[in-house]
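[SOLVED] Predicted holo structure with NAP

Edit: marking solved, answer below. Original request kept for reference. I posted the sequence and ligand SMILES and asked for the 3D complex as C-alpha cells.
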Amino acid sequence: MEKRRLGNTDIQVSAVALGCWAIGGWQWGGTDDEKAVAAIRKAIDVGMVFIDTAPVYGFGHSEEIVGKAIEGRRDEVVLATKCGLVWDHETRNFSFADKEGRAIYRDLTKGNVLKEAEDSLRRLKTDWIDLYQCHRPDDMTPAEETMEALNLLLEQGKIRAIGVSNFSVKQMEDFRKHGPVHSDQPRYSMLDREIEPEILPYCRNHGMGVLAYSPLEQGILTGKVTLDRKFPEDDYRIDRPWFQKKNLKRALEFVEKLKPIAAAHGKSLAQLAINWVICQDELMAPLVGARNPEQVVENAGGADWRLTDEELRLIDHYVEELGPPEE
Ligand SMILES: NC(=O)c1ccc[n+]([C@@H]2O[C@H](COP(=O)([O-])OP(=O)(O)OC[C@H]3O[C@@H](n4cnc5c(N)ncnc54)[C@H](OP(=O)(O)O)[C@@H]3O)[C@@H](O)[C@H]2O)c1
C-alpha cells in the first residue's frame, strides 16, 4: 500500500490506518477476539500497517488484542495508542458514562500519563509506541504538565511522536508551546466536515499529520447499513445523528448517488469514502475501523488510486444538496 509521512516526522505510515475501537467490543456490541486478531494480521499482510488503538477501547482489551496480533511482527507495524481517558479511578474531570453506566474520566496529569504509557507498553507487548496521543483534552490539567510527561517519554525512547485528538486549535496551540505535537486525530468524513475551516489549516500550517477518524461515517458510507438494520443496545451508533431513521434515509439516498462514481473506478462505496479522505490532503491518513479480515481487505482498496477533481467537485455538490443531519 502507498505510504505517507506522518506530518513532519520521519515515520512512514500506510495511507490507510486501521482503527481498533470496534475490535475492543466496547460500545460496539461486543467483539469476536479470533476475528479481531485475524483482521489485524490481515491488515499487516495487505500493507495497512498503521494501527491505532486506545486503552479505553474495551478497558485494555483492544490493546491486548493488538499486542497478540502483532507478536513477532512488531517491526512491520507503526503503532498508535492514546492516554487520558480513564475508568479505573475518579478525577475532577468527568467525561461521560457509557450505556452500562460506567464512568469515564479525563486525566492528563503527568503521573497518569506516565503510568498509562507503562500499562499500554505491557498490554501491547512492546518496548515502544510510535505515536502517543492525548485522547481528549483535559482542561483541568495545565498543558505544560502533560507535555512534560510526553517529552520525558520521547526522551526515554518509549514513544516516537506526540499526538492529540479532539483538540481545538487553541488547545493545540497551548500544547505546542511546550514541545512538539506531531499529529491530530479528529473526526472527518464526507458527511462531517467540521474540521475544514480551522483545524485542518492549522495542522497543514504546522506540519502535523491528520488521522481522520470515522471516515466511513461508522458504516453508513459503505452502503451496507440499511434502514432496518438493528444495532445491539450498547452500540454507540444508536445515538449518532446520521443513524436516526429520518437522517439515515437521506444519507442512504446520498450514498446511492455515489454508486456510479465508485463503479467508474471499479471500486466499492467503502473504498470511495476512504479515497475521498486521501484525496483531501497529503497530511491525511483515514483511520478506518474494521471487525473482520474481509472488511480490512476491502478497506485497503481505498488506497493506490485517485478520484478525479471533477468527481470530487460532484461529491461536494451532493453533500451540499444533502445538508446536515436534523436534530
Ligand atoms: N480519537 C477518538 O476520539 C476516536 C473516535 C472514534 C474513532 N476513533 C478511531 O477511528 C477508528 C475508526 O472510526 P470508527 O470505527 O468510529 O468508524 P468508521 O471507520 O467510519 O467505521 C467503522 C465501522 O464500519 C463498518 N465497516 C468497516 N469497514 C466496512 C466495510 N468494508 N464494509 C462494511 N462495513 C464496514 C464496521 O462496523 P459494522 O461491521 O458493525 O457495521 C466498522 O466497525 C476507530 O476504530 C478508532 O481507532 C477515534
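OP edit: Residues 245-264 form the longest helix (20 residues). Thanks to everyone who chimed in.
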